[in-house]
Hints:
The chain is α+β, with helices and mostly antiparallel strands. It has helices at about 5, 60-70, 75-85, 95-105; strands spanning about 15-20, 25-30.
Amino acid sequence: MRVATVLNRVEAVAEYTYDFGDDWMHRITVEKILPPEPDRFYPVCIDGKRHCPPGDCGGTGAFEELLQALKKPQNDNHRQRLEWMGGDFDPGAFSIEEANDRLREEFRPPAKGQRPTVH
């Protein structure tokens, strides 16, 4: 189902669970509907805050524990968590360019002759 089928008016709300098991609960509220711009790739991120949690970090409770561990560089848990993530992690960082690069990668149309990916 296309998102526009469900979220088709201002103040429309949808809730969903991402990653059953870790149970990331999301709520999407439509604030404004703009006309599409010709030749612009969609979906597109127009604003954001903070870095997304690393994959498989264990849900909201585990992510909060991760954030607390990262605040204490002298703690062994801090070093272990950074090693698990593969290096530095700044939870306050956000890059609109990186967000849109990820969207383009995930939702780009298939090349001729390829089957589309189901999302």
